[in-house]
Amino acid sequence: MTLRLKLFMLMAGVTVFSTMGVTAVALWRELQRGQELLYREGATLAGSVAAGASRFVGPDGARPEAREALEPMLRRLVAGAPLVRAWVVDRSGRLVACAGTPGGHERCPDGMPGAFAPAESPVQALLRLVQAEGIVASAPVLRDGELVGAVRVDFKHEEVVGSARRLAWSSAAVAGLWILIGQAFSALLFAGIARSITRVVRASEQLADGERGLQLPVPGDRELADLVVSFNRLSARLKARRDENERLIAELEARVQQKTREVLRADRLATLGGIAAGFAHELGNSLNVIRGYAGVALRELPEGHPNRPDLEAVKRETKRAAALLERFLVFARSRDTRAQAQSIEPVLREAVEVVGPAAAQAGIETHVQVDPGLPEVNADAEMLRQAFLNLCVNAIQAMQPGGGRLEVRLRRDGDAVAVEFRDTGPGIDPEVQQHVFEPFFTTKAAGTGLGLAIVRQAAETHGGTVEVESRPGAGALFRVRLPGAGGKA
After folding, report:
1. Three-state SS across the chain?
2. Are 156 and 104 in contact (CB under 8 A)?
3. Which end of the chain, N or C, is less packed with Cβ atoms under 10 Å?
4. Beta-sheet strand order (sheet of 465-470)
């Protein structure tokens, strides 16, 4: 069903319902007025017979000749008025005499004299339009002031509803005329509405086909103007969104291309890293051989030999180069972790104990604090021991010379555990803090720049993080967060 048809039906319904309402009110008032008049007329007609009926009806019932005497009076009454029947009942409600139109007198009912009353309900008045029922009026039969019976008359149904039917037909004719006028006016009104709506529908289809920035002329009707203005706003927003989406897609494609180049570069670097690790291993073997032969030559040269300092320099630098390659291999080695749920307190205490003699020799006091009730960690003990050892060694080197204090604390951090290494050294500059975990970055003259890189690698391998907090002249704090068994850092 189209919108136009629905609007036509709506207007027709409104017109019909309003006309029916006016007609119903008019019919009800006409029926009530007519019924009141008929009741009064009926009571007068019945009263004209009641005076004569009092001679034949007494307190003990009707006289034997009552029927023959009263029926002619009733027939004259029915013939002179629009009645279906007229009848008389005694005080006990028994039928005494009856007269009416053909077939009407056969339906004269018994009934007590006071049983009839005017119908005042609007529903009862309107039901008389469809039910073949007249109006029954009555008048009492009195003898010496005592009720001894009643005379009743029944008006024809046509007399009750005739004027109402004529009013209904005239109202229907007027309603039909107004419906035709209303539908003609509605057709003109809805034609303009339909044109505007059709224009909006076609424009929506054009938007769906990809046309951008479509704007429609705003009509004069306020409601349609609101619809068109909303459509124009929607069209403008869709255009802005499409432009924004295209910009984002272009940026995303550029980022994807950049990331693709980075992945390819990372893959090449990984390949080169594997080759470099192989070279480093072979060079380490050669350096160990050179260091071994240099040691043998030093043992054979007597003290004070002019070549002895040269051989000692060869052995020392060879040892330093071998240590650098070994640390590089530790950093570059990609081995699977042998993690299992365990407490990391023994691993931490062992690392601090290992550097204990070096710390004591440098005048550095070490202190370990472990909070109770810590969760276990899925840890590779060997990898974490190396990371903790590197942090302790860096702290001791930072406090040389002059000594200081190294505080190591193991505490809970939510569902994770945190290991903190706090020293009293000179601190780290903010610019340096940004690069301390990068491979081969170092501020030490003899450093390799791999110690803190190994620490970060170990933390991330365990699903954790490492961070540094420091200010120049206020020491440094390195914090390693490791997730509890089954949790996240």
Report:
1. CCHHHHHHHHHHHHHHHHHHHHHHHHHHHHHHHHHHHHHHHHHHHHHHHHHHHCCCEECCEECCCHHHHHHHHHHHHHHHCCEEEEEEEECCCCEEEEEECCCCHHHCCCCCCCCCCCCCCHHHHHHCCCCCCCCEEEEEEEECCEEEEEEEEEECHHHHHHHHHHHHHHHHHHHHHHHHHHHHHHHHHHHHHHHHHHHHHHHHHHHHCCCCCCCCCCCCCHHHHHHHHHHHHHHHHHHHHHHHHHHHHHHHHHHHHHHHHHHHHHHHHHHHHHHHHHHHHHHHHHHHHHHHHHHHHHHHCCCCCCCHHHHHHHHHHHHHHHHHHHHHHHHHCCCCCCCEEECCHHHHHHHHHHCHHHHHHCCEEEEEEECCCCCCEEECHHHHHHHHHHHHHHHHHHCCCCCEEEEEEEEEECCEEEEEEEECCCCCCHHHHCCCCCCCCCCCCCCCCCHHHHHHHHHHHCCCEEEEEECCCCCEEEEEEEECCCCCC
2. no
3. N
4. 364-370, 404-413, 416-423, 476-483, 465-470
CA distance 80 to 20: 37
Beta-carbon contacts of residue 85 (< 8 Å; ≥ 6 apart): 78, 98, 99, 100, 101, 104, 105, 107, 108, 153, 154
CA distances 140 to 54, 78, 448, Å, are: 9, 18, 134
Residues 122-170: tens digit of each pLDDT: 555 555 555 556 678 888 888 888 888 898 888 876 766 666 666 666 7
431-461 tens-digit pLDDT:
888 878 887 767 665 666 677 888 888 888 8
Residue 267 amino acid letter? D
pTM above 0.70, yes or no: no
In this structure, how many other beta carbons lie within 10 angstroms of the beta carbon of residue 416? 19
Q: Is 144 left (phi over 0), alpha (psi -120 to 50) or beta?
A: left
Q: Is the peptide bond before 309 cis (omega within 30 degrees of 0)?
A: no
User: How crowded is residue 37: how many other Cβ atoms within 10 Å of its Cβ?
Assistant: 11
What is the spatial distance between Cα 474 and Cα 448, in angstroms, rounded to a whole number? 25
Average pLDDT for residues 29-54, to the nearest whole number?
80
CA distances from residue 274 to 67, 267, 335, 450 in whole angstroms, order as listed = 137, 11, 13, 17
| Count of C-beta atoms within a 10 Å radius of residue 106 | 9
Token couple for 314: 């060869």
What are the b/e assignments for 209-238, b being 16+ CB within 10 Å? eeeeebebeebeeeebeebbeebbeebeee
pLDDT at 115: 45
